[in-house]
Amino acid sequence: MINLKHMKILGIETSCDETAAAVLEANKGKFKVLSSIVLSQINIHKKYGGVVPEVAARKHVEHIIAVVEQALTEAKINDPKKQIDYIAVTAGPGLITSLFVGVECAKSLSYCWEKPLVAIDHVKGHIYTNCLEHMANGKWKFPALALVVSGGHTELVLMKDEYNWKKIGETLDDAAGESFDKVAKILDEIIPGEVGYPGGPFISKLAKKGNAERFDLPRPMINSGDLNFSFSGLKTAVLYLVRDNKEVFKKGDAIDVCASFQQAVIDVLVSKTIKAAEKFSINTIMLAGGVAANQELRSQLEKAIKDLDPKINFLMPEISLCGDNATASALAGYFKILKSDFTPYQKVKVDPNMEI
Ligand code: KG4
Ligand code: ZN
Description:
The protein is an alpha/beta fold. Helices cover 42% and strands 19% of the residues. It has helices at 42-45, 53-74, 80-83, 96-113, 122-128, 131-134, 176-187, 199-207, 232-244, 251-279, 295-308, 326-338; strands spanning 7-13, 18-27, 30-40, 86-92, 117-121, 144-149, 154-159, 165-170, 284-288, 313-315. A five-stranded mixed sheet has the order 3-2-1-4-5, with helices on both faces. Strands 8-7-6-9-10 form a five-stranded mixed sheet, sandwiched between helices. Helix 4 links the parallel strand 4 and strand 5 (117-121). The longest helix has 29 residues, at 251-279. The chain is globular. The two termini are 27 Å apart. The model has no long low-confidence stretch (mean pLDDT 97). Bound molecules: 5'-O-[(R)-(carboxyoxy)(hydroxy)phosphoryl]adenosine (KG4) and zinc ion (ZN). Residues 16, 150-152, 177-178, 180-181, 198-201, 204, 289-291, 293-294, 323-324 line the site of 5'-O-[(R)-(carboxyoxy)(hydroxy)phosphoryl]adenosine.
Protein backbone atom coordinates (compact mmCIF):
# COMPACT_ATOMS: atom_id res chain seq x y z
CA MET A 1 0.00 0.00 0.00
CA ILE A 2 1.39 3.38 -1.00
CA ASN A 3 1.12 5.94 1.79
CA LEU A 4 0.07 9.17 0.11
CA LYS A 5 0.61 11.29 3.20
CA HIS A 6 3.96 12.98 3.67
CA MET A 7 5.74 10.65 1.27
CA LYS A 8 9.44 11.57 1.04
CA ILE A 9 11.30 10.80 -2.16
CA LEU A 10 15.05 11.14 -2.62
CA GLY A 11 15.77 12.10 -6.25
CA ILE A 12 19.18 11.62 -7.87
CA GLU A 13 20.28 12.97 -11.25
CA THR A 14 23.66 12.61 -13.01
CA SER A 15 22.72 12.26 -16.69
CA CYS A 16 25.07 14.97 -17.98
CA ASP A 17 27.22 17.56 -16.17
CA GLU A 18 25.15 18.33 -13.08
CA THR A 19 25.48 16.23 -9.94
CA ALA A 20 22.09 16.64 -8.29
CA ALA A 21 20.05 15.32 -5.38
CA ALA A 22 16.75 16.50 -3.95
CA VAL A 23 14.23 15.53 -1.31
CA LEU A 24 10.62 15.97 -2.36
CA GLU A 25 7.68 15.63 -0.04
CA ALA A 26 4.39 14.60 -1.64
CA ASN A 27 1.32 14.99 0.51
CA LYS A 28 -1.92 13.87 -1.14
CA GLY A 29 -0.97 15.39 -4.50
CA LYS A 30 0.71 18.50 -3.12
CA PHE A 31 4.46 18.80 -3.50
CA LYS A 32 7.04 20.50 -1.35
CA VAL A 33 10.71 20.61 -2.29
CA LEU A 34 12.51 20.06 1.02
CA SER A 35 15.93 20.41 -0.62
CA SER A 36 17.43 20.55 -4.09
CA ILE A 37 21.19 20.53 -4.57
CA VAL A 38 22.66 21.01 -8.04
CA LEU A 39 26.42 20.93 -8.35
CA SER A 40 27.24 22.17 -11.83
CA GLN A 41 30.45 21.18 -13.61
CA ILE A 42 30.21 24.08 -16.06
CA ASN A 43 33.42 25.70 -14.80
CA ILE A 44 35.32 22.50 -15.58
CA HIS A 45 33.85 21.82 -19.02
CA LYS A 46 33.77 25.40 -20.30
CA LYS A 47 37.47 25.38 -21.09
CA TYR A 48 36.84 22.51 -23.52
CA GLY A 49 33.80 24.27 -25.04
CA GLY A 50 31.51 21.37 -24.17
CA VAL A 51 30.99 18.43 -21.83
CA VAL A 52 33.83 15.89 -21.78
CA PRO A 53 32.03 12.65 -20.81
CA GLU A 54 34.98 10.97 -19.07
CA VAL A 55 35.66 14.09 -16.98
CA ALA A 56 31.94 14.48 -16.17
CA ALA A 57 31.69 10.92 -14.86
CA ARG A 58 34.80 11.30 -12.71
CA LYS A 59 33.45 14.50 -11.18
CA HIS A 60 30.12 12.80 -10.43
CA VAL A 61 32.03 10.04 -8.62
CA GLU A 62 33.91 12.62 -6.57
CA HIS A 63 30.83 14.57 -5.53
CA ILE A 64 27.76 12.34 -5.52
CA ILE A 65 27.92 11.32 -1.83
CA ALA A 66 28.46 14.88 -0.62
CA VAL A 67 25.61 16.14 -2.80
CA VAL A 68 23.21 13.46 -1.49
CA GLU A 69 24.34 14.18 2.09
CA GLN A 70 23.73 17.89 1.64
CA ALA A 71 20.27 17.26 0.21
CA LEU A 72 19.42 15.10 3.23
CA THR A 73 20.83 17.62 5.69
CA GLU A 74 18.96 20.57 4.14
CA ALA A 75 15.75 18.53 4.20
CA LYS A 76 16.39 17.79 7.91
CA ILE A 77 16.56 14.07 7.29
CA ASN A 78 18.66 12.74 10.18
CA ASP A 79 17.72 9.12 9.80
CA PRO A 80 17.17 8.39 6.09
CA LYS A 81 16.39 4.74 6.73
CA LYS A 82 13.35 5.87 8.69
CA GLN A 83 12.49 9.16 6.99
CA ILE A 84 13.03 8.50 3.28
CA ASP A 85 10.30 6.37 1.68
CA TYR A 86 11.48 5.95 -1.92
CA ILE A 87 14.46 6.63 -4.19
CA ALA A 88 14.10 7.90 -7.77
CA VAL A 89 17.11 7.99 -10.07
CA THR A 90 17.63 9.09 -13.67
CA ALA A 91 18.55 5.96 -15.64
CA GLY A 92 18.64 7.50 -19.15
CA PRO A 93 18.90 9.04 -21.65
CA GLY A 94 22.26 10.73 -21.17
CA LEU A 95 25.98 10.07 -20.98
CA ILE A 96 26.42 6.43 -20.08
CA THR A 97 29.30 6.78 -17.64
CA SER A 98 27.63 9.75 -15.90
CA LEU A 99 24.33 7.88 -15.59
CA PHE A 100 26.12 4.93 -14.01
CA VAL A 101 27.31 7.05 -11.09
CA GLY A 102 23.83 8.19 -10.03
CA VAL A 103 22.31 4.79 -10.68
CA GLU A 104 24.96 2.88 -8.71
CA CYS A 105 24.63 5.35 -5.83
CA ALA A 106 20.83 4.93 -5.83
CA LYS A 107 21.13 1.15 -5.97
CA SER A 108 23.49 1.12 -2.98
CA LEU A 109 21.16 3.36 -0.96
CA SER A 110 18.16 1.25 -1.93
CA TYR A 111 19.98 -1.84 -0.66
CA CYS A 112 21.28 -0.28 2.56
CA TRP A 113 18.09 1.57 3.51
CA GLU A 114 15.79 -1.15 2.13
CA LYS A 115 13.83 1.40 0.09
CA PRO A 116 11.98 0.78 -3.19
CA LEU A 117 13.67 2.27 -6.22
CA VAL A 118 12.20 3.81 -9.38
CA ALA A 119 14.22 4.34 -12.59
CA ILE A 120 13.49 7.65 -14.31
CA ASP A 121 13.49 8.81 -17.92
CA HIS A 122 15.33 12.15 -17.91
CA VAL A 123 13.12 13.69 -20.63
CA LYS A 124 10.02 12.79 -18.62
CA GLY A 125 11.68 14.36 -15.59
CA HIS A 126 12.01 17.65 -17.48
CA ILE A 127 8.30 17.51 -18.36
CA TYR A 128 7.24 16.66 -14.80
CA THR A 129 8.84 19.88 -13.49
CA ASN A 130 5.59 21.47 -14.70
CA CYS A 131 3.48 19.58 -12.18
CA LEU A 132 5.34 20.93 -9.14
CA GLU A 133 3.02 23.90 -8.73
CA HIS A 134 0.33 23.10 -11.27
CA MET A 135 -0.83 19.78 -9.85
CA ALA A 136 -2.28 21.54 -6.81
CA ASN A 137 -3.94 24.33 -8.80
CA GLY A 138 -5.55 21.91 -11.24
CA LYS A 139 -3.67 23.05 -14.34
CA TRP A 140 -1.77 19.75 -14.78
CA LYS A 141 -4.43 18.52 -17.22
CA PHE A 142 -4.65 16.13 -20.13
CA PRO A 143 -4.60 15.64 -23.07
CA ALA A 144 -1.43 17.70 -23.17
CA LEU A 145 1.50 18.48 -25.42
CA ALA A 146 5.06 19.04 -24.17
CA LEU A 147 7.88 20.79 -25.99
CA VAL A 148 11.15 19.57 -24.45
CA VAL A 149 14.14 21.65 -25.47
CA SER A 150 17.53 21.03 -23.92
CA GLY A 151 21.17 20.52 -24.80
CA GLY A 152 20.50 16.93 -25.80
CA HIS A 153 16.84 16.91 -26.82
CA THR A 154 14.25 18.67 -28.90
CA GLU A 155 11.04 16.69 -28.72
CA LEU A 156 7.31 17.13 -28.93
CA VAL A 157 5.50 14.70 -26.65
CA LEU A 158 1.78 14.00 -26.82
CA MET A 159 0.38 13.06 -23.41
CA LYS A 160 -3.08 11.53 -23.74
CA ASP A 161 -3.40 11.06 -20.01
CA GLU A 162 -1.13 10.85 -17.00
CA TYR A 163 0.62 7.70 -18.23
CA ASN A 164 0.03 7.45 -21.96
CA TRP A 165 2.84 9.51 -23.55
CA LYS A 166 4.17 9.37 -27.08
CA LYS A 167 6.93 11.22 -28.91
CA ILE A 168 5.41 12.83 -32.03
CA GLY A 169 8.36 14.94 -33.19
CA GLU A 170 12.10 15.19 -32.63
CA THR A 171 15.24 16.74 -34.01
CA LEU A 172 16.90 14.91 -36.85
CA ASP A 173 20.32 16.34 -35.97
CA ASP A 174 21.33 18.98 -33.39
CA ALA A 175 19.17 19.76 -30.36
CA ALA A 176 17.98 23.36 -29.91
CA GLY A 177 20.30 23.95 -26.93
CA GLU A 178 23.19 22.38 -28.79
CA SER A 179 22.71 24.90 -31.61
CA PHE A 180 22.92 27.77 -29.08
CA ASP A 181 26.14 26.23 -27.75
CA LYS A 182 27.64 25.86 -31.24
CA VAL A 183 26.68 29.38 -32.34
CA ALA A 184 28.32 30.76 -29.18
CA LYS A 185 31.54 28.98 -30.16
CA ILE A 186 31.33 30.45 -33.68
CA LEU A 187 30.83 33.99 -32.30
CA ASP A 188 33.80 33.67 -29.99
CA GLU A 189 35.96 34.64 -33.00
CA ILE A 190 34.27 38.04 -33.20
CA ILE A 191 33.64 38.77 -29.53
CA PRO A 192 36.24 36.67 -27.71
CA GLY A 193 35.48 36.15 -24.04
CA GLU A 194 31.93 37.50 -24.31
CA VAL A 195 30.30 34.20 -25.18
CA GLY A 196 31.09 30.97 -23.36
CA TYR A 197 29.75 27.53 -22.57
CA PRO A 198 26.87 26.81 -22.38
CA GLY A 199 25.95 29.26 -25.10
CA GLY A 200 22.23 29.73 -24.40
CA PRO A 201 22.46 32.18 -21.50
CA PHE A 202 25.15 34.29 -23.29
CA ILE A 203 23.30 34.42 -26.60
CA SER A 204 19.93 35.20 -25.08
CA LYS A 205 21.44 38.02 -23.00
CA LEU A 206 23.19 39.59 -26.01
CA ALA A 207 20.12 39.04 -28.21
CA LYS A 208 18.12 41.44 -26.02
CA LYS A 209 20.13 44.33 -27.47
CA GLY A 210 20.17 43.04 -31.05
CA ASN A 211 18.07 43.40 -34.19
CA ALA A 212 16.41 40.03 -34.84
CA GLU A 213 15.45 41.03 -38.39
CA ARG A 214 18.94 42.08 -39.51
CA PHE A 215 20.02 38.68 -40.89
CA ASP A 216 17.66 36.48 -42.85
CA LEU A 217 18.62 33.07 -41.46
CA PRO A 218 16.91 29.82 -42.47
CA ARG A 219 14.05 28.31 -40.45
CA PRO A 220 14.87 24.65 -41.18
CA MET A 221 11.94 22.29 -41.73
CA ILE A 222 9.40 24.93 -40.72
CA ASN A 223 7.17 23.80 -43.60
CA SER A 224 8.20 20.14 -43.64
CA GLY A 225 4.67 18.94 -42.99
CA ASP A 226 5.76 16.81 -40.06
CA LEU A 227 6.62 17.65 -36.46
CA ASN A 228 10.36 17.05 -36.67
CA PHE A 229 13.13 19.61 -36.29
CA SER A 230 16.61 20.24 -37.65
CA PHE A 231 19.04 22.86 -36.38
CA SER A 232 22.32 21.86 -37.94
CA GLY A 233 21.68 23.83 -41.18
CA LEU A 234 20.87 26.96 -39.19
CA LYS A 235 24.15 26.64 -37.31
CA THR A 236 26.00 26.21 -40.62
CA ALA A 237 24.29 29.33 -42.02
CA VAL A 238 25.60 31.28 -39.00
CA LEU A 239 29.04 29.74 -39.51
CA TYR A 240 29.18 30.94 -43.15
CA LEU A 241 27.78 34.36 -42.28
CA VAL A 242 30.48 34.88 -39.67
CA ARG A 243 33.25 33.35 -41.77
CA ASP A 244 32.39 35.56 -44.78
CA ASN A 245 32.32 38.72 -42.67
CA LYS A 246 35.08 37.95 -40.21
CA GLU A 247 37.14 40.98 -41.16
CA VAL A 248 34.29 43.48 -40.94
CA PHE A 249 31.98 42.24 -38.19
CA LYS A 250 32.18 44.12 -34.89
CA LYS A 251 30.43 43.54 -31.58
CA GLY A 252 27.19 45.19 -32.76
CA ASP A 253 27.03 42.78 -35.71
CA ALA A 254 27.64 39.79 -33.44
CA ILE A 255 24.76 40.95 -31.23
CA ASP A 256 22.48 41.13 -34.28
CA VAL A 257 23.60 37.60 -35.22
CA CYS A 258 22.57 36.45 -31.71
CA ALA A 259 19.13 38.05 -32.03
CA SER A 260 18.55 36.82 -35.60
CA PHE A 261 19.69 33.29 -34.74
CA GLN A 262 17.60 33.11 -31.58
CA GLN A 263 14.53 34.31 -33.49
CA ALA A 264 15.05 31.63 -36.16
CA VAL A 265 15.14 28.90 -33.47
CA ILE A 266 12.08 30.32 -31.71
CA ASP A 267 10.10 30.61 -34.97
CA VAL A 268 10.62 26.91 -35.69
CA LEU A 269 9.89 25.77 -32.12
CA VAL A 270 6.74 27.88 -31.86
CA SER A 271 5.49 26.99 -35.33
CA LYS A 272 5.86 23.22 -34.79
CA THR A 273 4.29 23.38 -31.33
CA ILE A 274 1.29 25.26 -32.68
CA LYS A 275 0.96 22.83 -35.60
CA ALA A 276 0.99 19.91 -33.16
CA ALA A 277 -1.60 21.65 -30.97
CA GLU A 278 -3.84 22.14 -34.01
CA LYS A 279 -3.45 18.53 -35.09
CA PHE A 280 -4.29 16.94 -31.76
CA SER A 281 -7.00 18.28 -29.55
CA ILE A 282 -5.23 19.14 -26.36
CA ASN A 283 -6.01 21.43 -23.48
CA THR A 284 -2.55 21.98 -22.00
CA ILE A 285 0.84 22.85 -23.51
CA MET A 286 4.01 22.51 -21.43
CA LEU A 287 7.49 23.80 -22.03
CA ALA A 288 10.49 22.06 -20.44
CA GLY A 289 14.28 21.62 -20.52
CA GLY A 290 17.29 23.94 -20.32
CA VAL A 291 16.23 26.09 -23.32
CA ALA A 292 12.88 26.69 -21.57
CA ALA A 293 14.83 29.26 -19.53
CA ASN A 294 14.91 31.45 -22.65
CA GLN A 295 12.67 34.44 -21.91
CA GLU A 296 11.92 35.21 -25.57
CA LEU A 297 10.85 31.61 -26.18
CA ARG A 298 8.67 31.67 -23.07
CA SER A 299 6.88 34.87 -24.04
CA GLN A 300 6.56 34.21 -27.78
CA LEU A 301 5.24 30.69 -27.22
CA GLU A 302 2.80 31.96 -24.62
CA LYS A 303 1.50 34.60 -27.04
CA ALA A 304 1.18 32.14 -29.93
CA ILE A 305 -0.83 29.76 -27.73
CA LYS A 306 -3.12 32.56 -26.57
CA ASP A 307 -3.67 33.57 -30.20
CA LEU A 308 -4.46 29.97 -31.14
CA ASP A 309 -6.93 29.36 -28.32
CA PRO A 310 -7.04 31.31 -25.07
CA LYS A 311 -8.62 28.29 -23.38
CA ILE A 312 -5.41 26.24 -23.70
CA ASN A 313 -3.40 26.11 -20.45
CA PHE A 314 0.22 27.04 -20.89
CA LEU A 315 2.65 25.73 -18.26
CA MET A 316 6.34 26.38 -17.89
CA PRO A 317 8.66 25.56 -15.01
CA GLU A 318 10.29 28.29 -12.97
CA ILE A 319 13.76 29.11 -14.33
CA SER A 320 15.64 27.16 -11.63
CA LEU A 321 13.84 23.97 -12.70
CA CYS A 322 14.56 24.29 -16.45
CA GLY A 323 18.11 22.96 -16.34
CA ASP A 324 19.05 19.53 -15.00
CA ASN A 325 18.03 18.97 -11.39
CA ALA A 326 16.96 16.10 -9.15
CA THR A 327 13.56 17.56 -8.17
CA ALA A 328 12.58 16.55 -11.71
CA SER A 329 13.62 12.93 -11.06
CA ALA A 330 11.75 12.86 -7.73
CA LEU A 331 8.59 14.29 -9.35
CA ALA A 332 8.73 11.71 -12.15
CA GLY A 333 9.36 9.14 -9.43
CA TYR A 334 6.14 10.07 -7.64
CA PHE A 335 4.03 9.01 -10.61
CA LYS A 336 5.85 5.68 -10.95
CA ILE A 337 5.51 5.11 -7.20
CA LEU A 338 1.73 5.65 -7.46
CA LYS A 339 1.66 2.75 -9.91
CA SER A 340 4.10 0.70 -7.78
CA ASP A 341 6.34 0.63 -10.85
CA PHE A 342 9.48 -0.22 -8.88
CA THR A 343 12.62 -1.90 -10.15
CA PRO A 344 14.58 -4.13 -7.75
CA TYR A 345 18.02 -2.58 -7.34
CA GLN A 346 19.64 -5.66 -8.91
CA LYS A 347 17.69 -5.05 -12.12
CA VAL A 348 18.01 -1.29 -12.66
CA LYS A 349 19.72 -0.73 -16.00
CA VAL A 350 21.33 2.38 -17.37
CA ASP A 351 20.00 3.19 -20.83
CA PRO A 352 21.80 6.10 -22.54
CA ASN A 353 19.32 5.97 -25.44
CA MET A 354 16.11 5.64 -23.41
CA GLU A 355 13.07 6.80 -25.38
CA ILE A 356 9.67 7.93 -24.17
O1 KG4 B 1 18.34 20.62 -19.74
P1 KG4 B 1 19.76 21.03 -19.74
O2 KG4 B 1 20.31 21.69 -18.50
O3 KG4 B 1 20.70 19.83 -20.04
C1 KG4 B 1 20.39 18.82 -20.93
O4 KG4 B 1 19.63 17.88 -20.55
O5 KG4 B 1 20.84 18.95 -22.08
O6 KG4 B 1 19.97 22.01 -21.00
C2 KG4 B 1 21.17 22.67 -21.24
C3 KG4 B 1 21.01 23.48 -22.52
C4 KG4 B 1 22.31 24.07 -23.05
O7 KG4 B 1 22.44 23.74 -24.41
C5 KG4 B 1 22.13 25.56 -22.85
O8 KG4 B 1 22.79 26.36 -23.81
C6 KG4 B 1 20.64 25.71 -22.97
O9 KG4 B 1 20.12 24.58 -22.30
N1 KG4 B 1 20.16 26.95 -22.34
C7 KG4 B 1 19.58 27.97 -23.02
C8 KG4 B 1 19.32 29.00 -22.08
N2 KG4 B 1 19.75 28.57 -20.85
C9 KG4 B 1 20.26 27.31 -21.03
N3 KG4 B 1 19.30 28.10 -24.33
C10 KG4 B 1 18.72 29.25 -24.73
N4 KG4 B 1 18.46 30.28 -23.91
C11 KG4 B 1 18.73 30.21 -22.58
N5 KG4 B 1 18.46 31.23 -21.78
ZN1 ZN C 1 18.32 17.69 -19.24
